[in-house]
Specification:
Length: 175
């Protein structure tokens, strides 16, 4: 008996290919992907709680820190505030989109996860630099900013290779 995996007509329909790893390998949202799911959900919850509070803090401090008449004025305050607010807002959207695609098991998920971890690390590095270019803000840094960079670098170093190499990831995100 001959089994033909290709469509019978010659139109440009999607061709189905046989992948033995999909049959024999692991798939599904289990394994290490449980930690990824937990991290995505907790990050979204934390941002949804912290971002509005941060917006209100910025509104309170904006006039004092961005007014040229203020003793605390530095031109980077405004740039830093806008950068952080835009990033947090975009990150909320990216997290929601990534979670939706994650649970739909879309093939774009590995790329989204790499983008998510990469942008988070890059944001933390840029934020660190912006704060340390501002002498007033730099004096207020109690070492937490460099910790934020490391807290972004560690998941980047773990999960980017995982999403690039994992058979579970390749077998799960196929739609």
């Amino acid at each position: 008996m001959k089994i033909n995996l290709l469509p019978t007509n010659h139109s440009k329909k999607r061709q189905h290919t046989f992948n033995p790893d999909r049959l024999l390998g692991v798939s599904g949202l289990g394994g290490w992907l449980i930690l990824v799911q937990f991290g995505l959900i907790m990050s979204l919850i934390a941002l949804l709680v912290q971002t509005p509070r941060y917006y209100f803090d910025v509104i309170d401090d904006w006039i004092v820190l961005t007014s040229k008449a203020s003793e605390l004025y530095h031109p980077l305050w405004g740039i830093t505030f806008v950068f952080e607010l835009l990033y947090n807002t975009l990150l909320i959207g990216l997290l929601i989109y990534t979670l939706v695609m994650f649970y739909r098991k879309k093939s774009i998920v590995p790329r989204l996860m790499i983008i998510l971890y990469s942008t988070h690390l890059i944001f933390n590095i840029i934020d660190f630099v912006l704060i340390h270019l501002n002498p007033i803000a730099s004096q207020m840094d109690d070492g937490l900013l460099i910790m934020d960079v490391f807290r972004a670098a560690i998941p980047f170093a773990i999960w980017v290779p995982y999403f690039l190499k994992s058979k579970r990831v390749k077998n799960t995100f196929v739609r």
